[in-house]
Protein: Olfactory receptor
Amino acid sequence: MWLNTTTSLFLLTGFPGMEKAHHWISIPLLGVYVSILLGNGTLLFLIRDDHNLHEPMYYFLAMLAATDLGVTLTTMPTVLGVLWLNHREIGHQACFSQAYFIHTLSIVESGVLLAMAYDRFIAIRNPLRYTSILTNTKVMKIGMGVLTRAGLSIMPIIIRLHWFPYCRSHVLSHAFCLHQDVIKLACADITFNRLYPVVVVFAMVLLDFLIIFFSYFLILKTVMGIASGEERAKALNTCISHICCILVFYVTVVGLTFIHRFGKHAPRVVHITMSYIYFLFPPFMNPVIYSIKTKQIQSGIIRLFSLPNSRA
Structure:
């Protein structure tokens, strides 16, 4: 029997078997959410306000921060709603929209990390032409390309969710909507929706990683050709923050994939916890990494927080 997707509801799930502890679990999660909002919000404010940061490298960093904010703001309302208020119901339209933004922003993050690798590649391989190659217009086009690629690639599977009948249990396994959860509840042929995401992951996320890896191979080759040890260290130091962000993102991707592929007999709470790590750890760590490893960001933060004192 086909159900009306405009009136039917899904039920979100917090931590099964730990419902009495939901309020306590929400405290550290809220702390992480607030830290993500403050950290990435501060980066965006600094890059917009500080003219010293009006460079391609920091424009791409702003894209990364905006993406991390988007992921957080997309998941936070339903997660806290489930943990605080036990508000588990979500309409099909809202659920599909949330799934679309979650998966799109994950692809965007991979694309932005690739764009940042391209930025470092040009800065080190062709420093004299860096600003003429990566103009503001070029940076904007790259950003739009990353966003368009992600949005269009995810759209086919999300559109199909509206067509499926949902006659099984309407209970989802997370406190937010994921495509792979929703299709398990569909009473229809979901072959396309099972295979297409695999193609997207291999064609985009994996390809992005391989291109990033190859770009750093060329960067390392260029740096090793620099005669001065001090200059070599200086060149590599500009890449450290980006490399750390790449590791944070792709290690969580591999971890989540590993759990889903080989942890079928693991407790559900392990799968749920890993999904939270995947969505929260990179947005939490990226501002920390750039604040610690990038002197210009450090200086901007010091100026930002010393401004009220200087006025006083």
